[in-house]
Structure formats: structure tokens, C-alpha cells
Amino acid sequence: MERTFEENKQKASDKTQLVQQLSGSQIVLEAFLHEGVKTIFGYPGGAIMPIYDALYDYTDRLEHILVRHEQGAIHAAQGYARVSGKTGIVFATSGPGATNLVTGLADALIDSTPLVCITGQVFAHLLGTDAFQETDVINITTPVTKWNYQVTDADELPSVLAKAFHIAGSGRPGPVLIDITKNAQLQKTDYRGYTPCNYIRSYRPKPIPRAEYIEAAAVLINSAKKPLVVFGQGVLLGNAEKEFTAFIEKAGIPSAWTILGMSAIPTSHPLGVGMVGMHGNYGPNLLTNECDLLIAIGMRFDDRVTGRLDMYAKQAKIIHMDIDPAEIDKNVKTDVPVWGDCKETLPALTALINKKEHKEWLQKFKDCAEKENLKVIQGEMFPVEEVLTMAEVINHLNELTNGEAIIVTDVGQHQMVACRYAKYQHSKSNITSGGLGTMGFALPAAIGAAYGDTSRTVVAVIGDGGVQMTIQELGTIMQFKPNVKILILNNCFLGMVRQWQQLFHEKRYSFVDIQSPDFVQVAKGYGIPGQSVNKRSNLNGALKTMLEHEGSYLLEVMVGKENNVFPMVPQGKSVSDIVLSRDEM
Amino acid sequence: MKQEFTITVYTEDHIGLINRIAIIFSRRKINIGSINAGPTEVETIHRFTIVITETEEVVQKITKQIEKQVDVLKAFYNTDDELVWQEMAMYKVPTKIIAEQVKVERLLRQYGANTVVIRNDYTVFETTGQREEINALAQALEPWGLIEFVRSARIAIIKSSHGLHKALLEFEAAEPSEPVVENEFLDQRDGVFTL
């Protein structure tokens, strides 16, 4: 092929550029350094050995945490990403290593967590031959990734990795999986440096905000008598906490958070009216069906939030602000859609709205809160019975940490109680598996959270069921010594399922009486100190010991076996059918 | 009310994209009536034409989910009256019957069938048109010993798509697509040391 003069000149200048001969594996690690990666969570294996071999020479610049199971690696990366706002990195080998990531990928996709997962794959010539540890990772993970790609040629790696980081972290974040065949990891190729990607022609991470919708939204807000804001994780993901606070404070609108939106504003904020959803607070659920304007910001109207859709906020106009156009009208029909990044749309909207206070309307939330306080909260936080409640444990924790801690929860009753009662001062402090409801999430996610922000206390609140799903990660804590306070709320039951069996299945307790090992002894085996308490008099002291201990600590608190979480929006009921106790059902 | 919708998707030419699009339907247990994947007037940009029978609300949501995929440029949905659309079919009939039965010959003329292959034992005809005509001919030929019948997926042109062609050209000119990397090692199994 003949080259033009210009092309020859270009070729010559390429040579003067620094060209290194690097292996595909080295290119992966170079890309990480350029993207500012510091911590990798992973587990080696046959098909990813060349990358681990290259990593041997990068340990001065990249920290690798060897987990005990690939699911632990991906949950740790999720915890890391949720706390730090950066993209979490995972290494796993082919076959079982890769399939063990699936739960975490699904969790990260539904909870919009940015991850780049690198899986090893068999040699390209072995693809489709049922080779040892070969599995069709790309097709297995297609429904649970924002994007995935298989690399068979090392030349592709710089541009593919740049795309991976761009896609994972931009727009509505999500997990990306890059499957790299072993030959591509070993292949030496000319490496001309790394260029980050900020544009992909088929990909629109942010819809362009449209002025007419922002104006229409402002008109609705200015004329509303009883407006209600429900905000989700979009505020945190968009780093728009300040913009959001400015908006609600100018408009004077009562604001409720979803489970993932929690901590975007301090829980003590005067306009914060609590959590919506099945076990959320009484006021925001009840008054959803009384407001005249519902402003949804960075949330997706999950069924656990809306209850029965045909009876959800039917009386209200709906403004939906979201970065993902596919969320608009997905579950709840919107009157005014405001597409875009809320960091941009919120200030534009704030500029157009009138300074207001909705004192009477806000008072309704306070009245509801008082009712909930009398009927539920007081009894939960200051019980008269001898058995301990989960809520009083969280209450003591609040006092001792002053709302400064990062709280990572698992899934079930303890999660709902922790999210209902925990106090937060800072954003990105509540880490939980929201959309997927993944038991076993908390312990590894707390490990990741501890790396995501080393300056803060990380408390993993876990049930006796969930902790047994990923308990092997105590080994990771033993070896790498992240500072994680493990607080097991043990009710000797799979509590949430038991609650439903009690309420909806005539107390037919079918396989919810789970037995646990001696958690303190198990922790001791891993070199982690701990204790178990079952008396109120010992609770505060034990929590203090845990928090003051230098390094990780396990505290098991024996709580009431058959305590239920209330309030509750029973399944299939409207949010305004929320009940405060069993008697109301 | 459920009705027939045609979803048109412009995409990058990437391996695995057909799966990423197809699972959006199967996840919701929606049957794909027909799916056609092929080139467009702009080389490197591919076009899917998917036919489903669903309510407009469902189709609208699905179209958004498709467009959300990273490698998808644009997705539209249209009702039949907004489209010019065609399907193609082939019919294998015993040659003897055609030679002997005037009725069959008349049928073929009536439906404007073209001959593709004539052999001693069988003849293959082809028609292009809309679903009803194609199915009607297949049914009419059935009593006369129709040996094989196959119908293609729908291809469709959107009636009001003047701006789109220009947009696609500008799009490609602004940033040409990258070539697809296929697995060139698959047939080189022998002589490669593996672990």
C-alpha cells in the first residue's frame, strides 16, 4: 500500500514518540495508573495469571486486596465506589471466577455503581471448545452490565479500557466487564501511551437539559401548595448535594429520601422528612397521597417505594428529574420530565423558583413524625421489655459516632432498622444493597468502604443470616487489616422472611430458624477480637469498646427473636395504607 | 390495545449486540415476531428491524431501553401505516403439479410469483409483499403439495425519514467507526502452546 507524503510524515513522527513494547497485561495496569486507580479487589486464577504476573512489578503503585471469593471482590469494589465516588476495580479469572461476579454485577447495575471488572479468559483459539475454565462470560453478563467487551488482541486494550472507564463512570454509572483472553494478556505490542476517553459517538451519557421543561417545572413548583420532594441516589452520584440543598431550602419543600438517597442531606436537616418506601417513615409515605406536586429527583420509582402504582400520588402533578431518559414514564407517568444531570438542572431550576416556606404543610409531616414517634419509635428505641431491640443498638451507635460513621448494611430487618434510625452528617455514608437486596453484601462492601475512605469509621451492620453468606471475607480482614467494625444483630432467625411468614402466612415458619456458629469464636479464629452481648447494661460499653478498638472488631448483639419492623406498607397496598403496628393490619 | 409495531434500531456493527437487544424483549417475555439485522446506506452502521405485537406504552418503554444501550445510535418505533414494508417468501412446489394443474399456474400468476429454480422434481417460486399476501399464497398452495415454505423477516422504510440519512452521513463523517475485531485465532488451534 502506498503512503502519501503526509502519512509518511505522520509515521515518522510516531517513531519519535515514546513507543514501548508492553504486554497486554502491562497495558491494563498502565491504564489503571492513568485512570488514578489505587486499589484493586481480586482473586487470581489460571486465565488471569499473566495480569497477576505483571502486577508483581506494580505493587508499589497499585494496592491489591486478595479476597476470599470473587463475590467478595465485587461487593468490596462496590463499597469502595459508593464511598469514594470513584470507579471500583475487580480482577477475576475465567469460568467460575467470572460467574462468581454475576451477583455483584446485577447489584451494581440496579444500584448504578461504577465498576470496571477485568476477567481472564482462555486463549482466543480455545473459545467455544469447552476448554478448562472456559465460560461464555460476555453472554452471561450481558443483562447485568452497562457494557461488556471481549479483547482478543492486545492492540485493542488501551482504547477499550479507556472506553470502559468512561462508560462505567459517566451518565448513569454502572458496571463494565472486560474479558481478556490469555493470548492478549501475554501478547507484546507497541504501546504509545494512554488517552482517556470522553466521547463515544453512539453513547449519550447526559441528555441535554431542555429549558422549556425546567421552566414548566418552575411554574408548577411556584404554584404548588403542598409540594413534596423525593430524592434518590442521583443526588449523590451527581455530587449535587449542595445544589440539592440550595434548591429545597429556597423552595421550602419537605424532602424525603429513598434508601439510596439517604445521607445526601444530613438526617437532621429541618426539611428532611425521612425515608419513603415499604419500611420508610409514616409521614412521607402517607402524605405522598396528599401532596399536590411530587418532585422526584434522581430516583426511579421502585415498587418498594411506590407500593400499588395505580394508587400512587394520583392526585399530584409529577416532575421527574433524571439523567436516564429510560426512567421517565417507566413506572410513574410524568407531567414534566427534566432530563439531565441534576448538578446542572437543579441550579437552573433553583434560579427560576420563588423563595417560599410551606409551614403548614411541613407541620403535617411533623405531626405524622410525632405519631410515628409515639406509636413506634419510642418503644423501639427505649423498650420496656428485657430483650434488646435493633433500634436501640442503632440509637447507641448514633450517640457514640455522632453520625460521623459510614454505615454499611446487609439485607433484611436489620437493614430497614439501620436505615430508619441511623443518623448521618455526611454524604455517601449509607452503603446498602438497595435494588437487588443482596444478602452477604455488607461484610465485603464494608471492607471496600474502609479502603474508599480510610479517614472514617466504617460499621458493618449485618444480620445473622447475611453474615454467613460471605463470612469467609473475615480472612481478607485478617490478612489486609482494613478497619471494619462488624456489628451482628442476631435474632436467630431470617428475620424479614419470618416477619412476612408471621404476617401473611399464618406464622408458618418455613426454614427461617437459622442456626449460627459462635461468631466471636469464628472471628477469634481469624485473629479478630470480639464479644457478644445480650444485656442492655452491657450494650453501650460493648459498642464503645468496638468503636475505640484499634482495628477491626466483631460485636454480636442478641436481639429480640420475633420483633417486627414497622411501619410497613403491606405488599399490594397503597403507600397511604401504611400501618404503624400489627393491630392496624 | 396491542397492535403491530416495527422497531427500527441504528447501531454500531459490534459483535454481541444482537444478544444485548434481543434480551430486552425476552426479559419481559415478549415474543419477537420477526427480526432482521443488516447494513444501512452508511457502511459500518447497522440496522435492526424488529416486529412485535404489543401496546404502544410497552413499545415506547422498550425502545427507550434499546436506545439506552451504549452501542445503539438511535431507536424508533412505528405503526404499519407509517412504514413502507416488505417481506419475502419462497415456495417449493412439485414441478409435476404445476405442469399438470392449470389452477396452480393461475394462482402463481395471480400472486405475481417469480420463478427462482426449475428442476425436474420441484420448482421454487418467490414472492415479495406483505404478510397477508404471502400467507394467502402459501395456504392456497398447501392442497397442491407445497413441499417447503419460508418467509423472511420484515424490512421496512420509515416514510418520514428525510433528515435521518443526512444525519447518519454527518455522524459517520465526524468520527468514523472503528473496525470490528474478530477472533483470528480460532482456526489456529494446532501448534499453539496452551496452559
Q: Briefly note the structural class of the backbone of chain A.
A: alpha/beta
- What is the count of helical runs of chain A? 23
User: Mean pLDDT across all residues of chain A, rounded?
Assistant: 96
Question: What is the terminal-to-terminal distance of chain A?
Answer: 80 Å
Alpha-beta content class of chain B = alpha+beta
Residue-averaged pLDDT of chain B? 90
Q: Largest beta sheet of chain B, briefly?
A: 5 strands, antiparallel
Instruction: Note the overall shape of chain B.
Output: globular
Helix tally of chain B equals 6
Number of domains of chain B: 2
Largest interface by Cβ-Cβ < 8 Å: A-B, 37 and 34 residues
Textual characterization of the structure:
The complex is a heterodimer of chains A (585) and B (195). By secondary structure, chain A is an alpha/beta fold. Chain A folds into three domains: 18-191, 3-Layer(aba) Sandwich (Rossmann fold); 211-364, 3-Layer(aba) Sandwich (Rossmann fold), CATH 3.40.50.1220; 388-562, Thiamin diphosphate (ThDP)-binding fold, Pyr/PP domains (Rossmann fold). Chain A contains 23 helices and 20 strands. In chain A, the strands form four sheets. Chain A has a six-stranded parallel beta sheet. In chain A, strands 11-10-9-12-13-14 form a six-stranded parallel beta sheet, sandwiched between helices. In chain A, strand 12, helix 14 and strand 13 form a beta-alpha-beta unit. In chain A, helix 13 (282-288) crosses helix 16 (359-381) and helix 17 packs across helix 18. Chain A is globular, with a radius of gyration of 25 Å. With 195 residues, chain B is α+β, with helices and mostly antiparallel strands. Chain B has two domains: 3-83 and 154-174, 2-Layer Sandwich (Alpha-Beta Plaits); 86-151, 2-Layer Sandwich (Alpha-Beta Plaits), CATH 3.30.70. Helices cover 32% and strands 34% of the residues of chain B. In chain B, strands 5, 6, 7, 8 and 9 form a five-stranded antiparallel beta sheet that branches. Chain B has a four-stranded antiparallel beta sheet with strand order 2-3-1-4, with helices on one face. The longest helix of chain B has 13 residues, at 56-68. The mean pLDDT of chain B is 90. Chains A and B meet through strand 6 of A and helix 1 and helix 2 of B.
